[in-house]
Design goal:
The chain has 111 residues and is an all-alpha fold. It has helices spanning 23-40, 42-55, 59-62, 64-79, 81-110. α2 runs antiparallel to α4 (64-79). It starts with 22 loop residues before the first helix and ends with a helix. The model is unreliable at 1-10 (pLDDT under 50). One of its GO terms (biological process) is mitochondrial respiratory chain complex IV assembly. One of its GO terms (cellular component) is mitochondrial intermembrane space.
């Protein structure tokens, strides 16, 4: 008889298990990633905004170089899995710290 094949798990570069996140926590990690990416790409976002202010309706053909630089920067951070894994790790560590704190408080209350 053939044995059923084991499903392979999703690979990620994090030492913590991805299944430890609820859907809400995954959403929080992705939101944190977006905030981090916008923070790191601030100079490109500002350059595009300044170009748009200067050129008004001609923004699309005139500001293409700034738009491309901004897009490339944002995609660099938002598509590389290591950055999302870092944000997931932060959320998981927050969760662990919160659970440890609650455990300590419950032990103190039970004494």
């Amino acid at each position: 008889m053939e044995q059923p094949q084991m499903q392979q798990s999703i690979k990620h570069n994090s030492p913590l298990p991805i299944w430890a996140l609820t859907p809400g926590e995954e959403k929080k990690a992705r939101k944190n990633l977006k905030t981090m990416a916008y923070g790191k790409c601030g100079e490109y976002i500002k350059a595009l905004a300044d170009c748009a202010k200067e050129n008004g309706i001609k923004v699309f053909p005139t500001c293409d170089p700034q738009r491309i630089k901004m897009k490339d920067c944002l995609l660099f951070y938002q598509t590389d899995p290591k950055f999302l894994d870092e944000e997931r790790d932060k959320v998981i560590l927050e969760k662990i710290n919160s659970l440890e704190k609650r455990l300590k408080e419950s032990k103190l209350n039970n004494k």
